[in-house]
Design brief:
The structure is a single chain. The protein is of the alpha/beta class and 446 residues long. The chain has two domains: 331 residues, Alkaline Phosphatase, subunit A; 97 residues, Gyrase A, domain 2 (2-Layer Sandwich). The chain has 15 helices and 21 strands. The strands form six sheets. It has an eight-stranded mixed β-sheet, with helices on both faces. α6 runs parallel beside α15. The longest helix is centred in the middle third of the chain and has 24 residues. The chain binds zinc ion (ZN).
Length: 446
């Protein structure tokens, strides 16, 4: 019989995490238990190692009794926020303040945009430009999943240390857990993890969230729900049917309805404002619309072996590996070769996107309905992808029972994933002016 704990493909990551989390419950034990029992057995823990840099003294709390919860519906598209597919989220949005022009930032992926949400900054300041980067030291591609990858203080730390309030992270994906490790006061270890997707189903994440609320009453909680993204990636039912995706949307929405009933019953609904958004949306491609940049560069003698390529779904990043004197000519040639492919939409420098030195020297994005597959045409078999421009628009609204939430309004000005951190800082009387962001202040009466 298959044991998820043993047949997981990424034993190395598991070993690393076990050493970083001495109080983690063995998943063999956890598998036989319900969500509430999981968390009561110690799958939430207190952090204490991370010390962000000092900031200005906090001002008064704008609302003494406000709890703020951020819920990221990973990969949700703005057109999926409607009364039919997501009735709970739609009701919340229409009863709160909805932002109609919200976007992720580039590269439109999970790790850079969650990092944007907790830091309020661009990747050239927060250190996380894409899910996968070229690591010059290791001479290989790697995932940005280490706790020290984030180079700017997070609001999970700042609300805890500057304000002295309990913060919590309850995230479903393994690499989000590891990159945020040690930042919140209370940090749930996601589990049981599904093989391949490396995420906990929303059922377990919501159960862990309920226990975290019951046991710790966090004032700021950061939640990631991974089902919509993970089942969207794997939806082979076609670009228009999206059977698995629609089922995941319905299930996640229903889990959030259950969360609302739980919070109403224990009294926490009326003291909580909930900011719901996605980290990016999703686009679907067929197996015929692939771009293998490795093939393109291998065919060209001026480019062969000169770039480290990091595949990021709807985008590829290129890091120059050759002699410094040849760099400008090689990048100019790469730009020419990549742009000649019919599936490529745009090419950017890292500076244009404010990606910082980890973001590589050039970024290529695909047209809607295409995907990158590197190093080979079979490396990326999944139909759902993001990272490119068409996957930037996201849902974004503020709801919940707290009386400071403004009701029934739609705001058309642009907002971004970075604005989540500024909104959290604003709500807890902390400075946000150093961020590349501004608070969603219209959503509140303070
Ligand atoms: Zn994501």
């Amino acid at each position: 019989m298959c044991d998820l704990h043993d047949c997981d493909h990424d034993r190395q990551a598991r070993a690393k995490r076990a050493s970083a989390s001495p109080t983690e419950v063995d998943r063999r034990t956890a598998l036989g238990l319900g969500g509430a029992a999981l968390a009561s057995l110690g799958m939430v823990q207190f952090a204490g190692s991370s010390v962000p840099k000092a900031s200005a003294a906090p001002g008064p709390l704008p609302a003494e009794d406000l709890d703020l919860m951020v819920i990221v519906c990973d990969g949700m598209r703005p057109d999926e926020l409607n009364a039919e597919q997501t009735p709970t989220l739609w009701r919340w949005a229409t009863q709160g303040t909805r932002y109609s022009n919200a976007k992720a930032h580039m590269v439109a992926e999970t790790l850079p945009n969650h990092t944007a949400m907790v830091t309020g900054t661009y990747p050239d300041r927060n250190g996380v430009p894409s899910n996968s980067i070229w690591d010059h030291g290791a001479g290989d591609e790697r995932t940005m999943d280490r706790a020290d990858d984030i180079t700017y203080p997070t609001v999970l730390e700042r609300i805890r240390t500057e304000r002295g309030l309990t913060t919590a992270s309850v995230v479903s994906k393994d690499y989000l857990y590891t990159i945020l490790d040690g930042k919140a006061s209370v940090h749930w270890t996601p589990g049981p993890l599904l093989p391949v997707t490396d995420h906990a189903l929303d059922h377990f994440t919501i159960e862990a969230l309920k226990v975290t609320i019951d046991d710790h009453s966090p004032r700021f909680t950061f939640v990631n729900l991974g089902d919509i993204d993970r089942f969207g990636h794997m939806d082979f039912s076609g670009t228009s049917w999206r059977l698995a995706r629609n089922q995941a949307l319905f299930n996640t929405d229903h889990k959030l309805w259950e969360l609302e009933q739980f919070m109403r019953a224990n009294g926490s609904w009326d003291r909580t404002a909930i900011l719901v958004l996605a980290d990016h949306s999703m686009d679907w491609s067929t197996p015929f619309d692939l771009i293998s940049a490795k093939e393109l560069t291998d065919r060209d003698p001026a480019l062969r072996g000169r770039f480290g390529i990091s595949q990021n779904g709807g985008a590829d990043t290129f890091a120059y590996l050759g002699a410094p004197g040849d760099k400008d000519a090689a990048i100019a040639r790469l730009r020419e070769v990549v742009l000649a492919h019919p599936g490529v939409n745009r090419v950017y420098t890292g500076d244009e996107l404010r990606l910082g030195e980890r973001g590589g020297d050039l970024v290529a994005t695909c047209h809607p309905g295409w995907r990158f597959s590197d190093p080979t045409p079979v490396s990326n078999p999944i139909p759902g992808n993001h990272g490119h421009e068409v996957t930037l628009p996201i849902p974004f609204f503020i709801a919940g029972g707290h009386p400071s939430v403004r009701r029934g309004q739609v705001v058309d000005r642009p907002v971004t994933t970075r604005d989540v951190a500024a909104t959290a800082a604003h709500a807890f009387g902390l400075s946000w002016q150093d961020m590349d962001a501004s608070p969603a202040a219209e959503a509140f009466t303070f």
